[in-house]
Inverse folding.
């Protein structure tokens, strides 16, 4: 891949960064509200950045705060409420 081709990827990569940051901030805020926890957007984004930096340096997958879609409750309950 040449530098010219790599430069052509910058707009797409920049767009992806913006979408991931927005999605991560929205997800963190939603969970903080849901569970009555303190939310600091800067702290969450710094943590996400450090996680992705570590992933890049170690050759593993990067992370996002994308909302998982579990088929079980997000917090343990006395009786399981499995979906029907």
């Amino acid at each position: 891949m040449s530098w010219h081709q790599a430069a052509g990827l910058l707009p797409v990569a920049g767009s992806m960064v913006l979408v991931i940051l927005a999605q991560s901030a929205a997800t963190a805020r939603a969970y903080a509200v849901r569970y009555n926890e303190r939310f600091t957007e800067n702290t969450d984004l710094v943590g996400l950045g450090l996680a992705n930096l570590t992933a890049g340096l170690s050759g593993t997958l990067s992370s996002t705060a994308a909302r998982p879609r579990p088929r079980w409750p997000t917090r343990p309950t006395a009786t399981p409420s499995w979906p029907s």
